[in-house]
Design goal:
The complex is a heterodimer.
Chain A lengths: L15 H4 L12 H8 L20 H9 L3 H11 L3 H7 L6 H4 L11 H14 L15 E5 L3 H12 L3 E5 L8 H4 L8 H14 L2 E3 L10 H4 L5 E4 L5 E2 L12 E3 H10 L17 E5 L3 H12 L4 E5 L11 H10 L2 E3 L2 E8 L5 E14 L5 E5 L5 E4 L2 E4 L3 E2 L3 H5 L25 E3 L2 H4 L4 H21 L3
Parallel strand pairs in A: 1-2, 1-4, 2-3, 4-16, 6-14, 7-8, 7-14, 8-9
Antiparallel strand pairs in A: 5-15, 10-11, 11-12, 11-13
Chain B lengths: L3 E8 L2 E7 L1 H6 L5 E5 L7 E9 L4 E7 L3 H7 L9 E6 L10 E7 L2 H4 L1 H9 L3 E8 L8 H6 L3 E6 L6 E2 L2 H10 L6 E5 L2 H11 L6 E4 L15 E4 L2 E4 H4 L2 E3 L5 H7 L4 H10 L2
Parallel strand pairs in B: 7-8, 7-11, 8-9, 9-10, 11-12
Antiparallel strand pairs in B: 1-2, 2-5, 3-4, 3-6, 4-5, 12-15, 13-14
The chains are: A alpha/beta, B alpha/beta.
Chain lengths: 465, 272
């Protein structure tokens, strides 16, 4: 057997010093030769472990084998059997926690670059022009309302339209995509990709109603006058704040606001685009997840001289993907670990000027399985800042739970569902994604959407709840 | 798609915008606002609703031209389409038979207080409407307000109409004379609402105000509209926009509204 290349085929990337001045993607993507080379590393295991690591069960060896043979059209065909958003997932999935983690190669060397190959296949297809429409089953006459056009909603709509149902997707914002379009920055996920995917759904026949807030313009009960089933994929869009003194000073943002201004409203193009954003010289981002990395890196691109992370635990406990942390470090983001803000101070004109922090140490393991951060009394110190981004998490928007009688909600505000089917406590109403789990990943929202679509189809066929 | 039925300037720099929006027209109530974005480059901004016609399916907003986004709206004409017109947003104002209700408006709030006065009248209240402006040429909808009020009390800075001064002066005079007012609702520029709240505080009359912080999405997902009420942080777009004026941290909202003054100037200058 020929020797397997022990490392992934190198991915050419924009140099850090250059890329902090633009909003283009960091990895350039594989060329055809690079992709074939990487694909040939796959051992084509008889019992592939990687598939089990994929929340939507993509036939990973299957699509990789086609890439190895140069059959790119067939490769994307295999991918799209299970994943309606391969261009997105190839970019944002934490493959190192999923398929690549279990890849048999990873025992002795680097795993197959599954994510990079998925991205390659999806980007290759996009370059060929409009993708072919998928076949649709005979019309069932049933109508489904999909509330939310984020990853969960897109997956449900994409699956159910193929099964012959009538789908209307409702989106509260003026652009579809949910967190894909307001949260994840342009330099990680170009918006034209999301627009392309949604456009594909519309060409398949999904009706998209933007600027429509379900819960006020129409309640769930009113939706049932027109629809036979409802899927709620409204996400976790309610930002958390720490509730510490000074947190409402000007230029202290939630990550949602900061990223929505930058990504959705294109504030990085102000004044060509009208929405402004504070472009601080010293920007502190509080938090350690992917959203915090996105915020800190956005700050650099907005002209920050110093962009730093303040995180209460250590590097090991950071929930962000290794790749995002790595890119942030390369770009010069400074990491203040084992540090937590306790108060903010203003400049006398209502703008934030300083953050007072306290040093932390790690104590006993808590319910998340990570060691609990404990403040070190008396270790307070202050850091001068002019912009702060609070990126400590989100919970579900309460609008729909508050306006839908009979919908059981947990104490954290998430919609309670049956994990296998997405069924809520209200007949005909299904849910999935962040609104049910709390903030998680794009791919897990898609997995939930897939399960819900199957259950909705069954429910509409046999009427059994 | 959100066709402009009419857009006209009613007094200098204050415009009436009427949009065909049947779904919103059906559900809209006093206190609601809408979020408007006029083109691809535009901001999302909140506008309080001033009137509606449920049969015709139209919704009307009164707004003041103050910067780039309101200038864009001020340039719309009948037949134009607004790509983003979202609503109804916010919590509805509490309308109940309370006795005597003072409905107080200034600037764009003269328009926005109209549906509140109308609803309070329909609920069986004695309605006293108070409006103020720098001068009489900036007053509007006096007849409309008279139709739904038991009395209309006008104040102008230059005494060109009504009595000299502000809504707060009239309210103070009335309350000092022992006139009974059971509830006050004030809508308009931040300073006027603050002024009215301070004037009524010693008399302990519940004063509801419609806070107008900067907003981005308007649906509760970003926190741009954070205000502090009774010491707690609230999102004006979903917890309000109406709050008890005696519990609002006015310094904070006045300061937060100034967060983008520099950018607002740049925006106007660049696109002049």
């Amino acid at each position: 057997m020929p020797k397997i290349q022990p490392t992934k085929t190198k991915m050419r990337e924009q140099p850090p010093k250059e890329r902090i001045h633009n909003n283009l993607e960091v990895p350039y993507g594989y060329s055809e030769e690079e992709a074939i080379n990487e694909a040939k590393r796959c051992l084509k295991c008889k019992k592939p472990l990687c598939v089990a690591g994929c929340p939507v069960e993509i036939d990973i060896p299957g699509f990789i084998a086609f890439i190895a043979e140069g059959e790119f059209r067939k490769a994307i065909g295999v991918l799209k059997e299970k994943n309606v958003l391969p261009a997105v997932c190839g970019r944002v999935c934490p493959q190192e926690e999923q398929c690549e983690k279990i890849c048999v190669l990873s025992k002795k060397m680097e795993p197959v670059g599954v994510g990079r190959l998925e991205r390659f296949a999806a980007d290759w297809e996009a370059k060929q022009g409009d993708s072919e429409l998928l076949p649709k089953a005979k019309s069932t006459g049933k109508r489904i309302a999909v509330v939310g056009s984020g990853p969960a909603g897109i997956t449900v709509a994409g699956d159910l339209i193929q099964m012959g149902h009538d789908i209307t997707m409702f989106e509260a914002l003026h652009e579809p995509g949910g967190v894909l379009v307001y949260g994840i920055p342009e330099f990680r996920l170009p918006k034209r990709i999301v627009a392309g995917e949604v456009d594909f759904l519309c060409r398949m026949g999904v009706e998209l109603k933007k600027n429509f807030v379900v819960g006020t313009a129409m309640t769930i009960d009113e939706l049932f006058q027109e629809f036979d089933a409802v899927f709620l994929g409204t996400g976790a869009g309610l930002p958390w704040f720490m509730d510490i003194p000074g947190e409402n000073l000007n230029n202290i943002y939630s990550a949602n606001e900061y990223l929505t201004r930058a990504n959705l409203m294109k504030a990085y193009l102000f004044p060509e685009y009208d929405t402004p954003i504070a472009c601080g010289k010293r920007v502190a981002t509080v938090g350690g997840g992917n959203v915090a990395m996105d915020s800190a890196r956005t700050a650099l691109r907005l002209g920050a001289e110093k962009s730093f992370i303040i995180y209460r635990r250590s590097r090991v406990e950071m929930p962000a993907r290794d790749e995002e942390i790595h890119h942030a470090e390369e770009e010069g983001v400074i990491f203040n670990l084992l540090t937590n803000p306790v108060a903010y101070y203003g400049d006398g004109n209502g703008n934030v000027k300083e953050v007072e922090c306290i040093r932390m140490e790690l104590g006993e393991t808590d319910s998340s399985g990570r060691r609990r951060p404990v403040p070190l009394e008396g270790s307070n110190f202050r850091i001068p800042v002019d912009v702060v981004v609070v990126s400590i998490g989100n919970s579900p928007n309460p609008l729909i739970p508050n306006t839908t009688p009979g919908l059981e909600i947990s104490k954290w505000g998430t919609i309670i569902i049956d994990e296998e089917t997405g069924k809520t406590s209200k007949k005909g109403v299904f849910a999935g994604g962040d609104v049910a789990t709390g903030a998680a990943t794009v791919i897990s929202a898609m997995g939930a959407g897939r399960k819900a679509a199957r259950a909705i189809h069954r429910y509409l066929k046999d009427g059994k709840w | 798609m959100n066709r402009v039925v009419e857009r006209k300037m009613i007094v200098p720099n204050i415009h009436l915008l009427t949009i065909e929006s049947p779904l919103i027209a059906k559900k809209i109530q006093p206190g609601h606002f809408v979020i408007v974005k006029v083109d691809e480059f535009g901001e999302r901004i909140p506008l309080t609703v001033a009137d509606w016609d449920r049969e015709e399916g139209t919704v009307s907003c009164v707004f003041m031209q103050v910067g780039r986004s309101t200038r864009k709206i001020a340039q719309l004409n009948s037949g134009d389409e607004i790509p983003t017109f979202v609503g109804p947003l916010g919590k509805v104002i509490e309308i109940d038979k309370l006795g005597t209700v003072a409905c107080v408006g200034g600037c764009y709030g003269i328009g926005s207080i109209y549906p509140v006065a109308r609803a309070m009248k329909e609920a069986g209240n004695k309605v006293l409407s108070f409006i103020e402006a720098r001068s009489r040429f900036l007053l509007y909808w006096e007849e409309k307000l008279r139709e739904v009020s038991d009395d209309l009390i006008i104040s102008t800075n230059d005494r060109s109409l009504g009595k000299k001064g502000h809504n707060s002066d009239r309210l103070k005079e009335m309350l000092q004379q022992g006139e009974r007012i059971d509830r006050i609702v004030a809508i308009g520029c931040t300073f006027m609402m603050y002024d009215v709240s301070e004037a009524t505080r010693p008399f302990a009359v519940k004063t509801i105000v419609s806070l107008n912080p900067v907003m981005v999405d308007g649906t509760g997902m970003c926190g741009a509209c954070r205000v502090e009420v009774a010491g707690k942080t609230k999102f004006a777009c979903v917890d309000g926009p109406d709050f008890d004026g005696h519990e609002v941290d006015w310094d904070l909202i006045l300061t937060r509204r100034k967060a983008y003054v520099r950018e607002e100037t740049v925006s106007e200058e660049v696109h002049h």
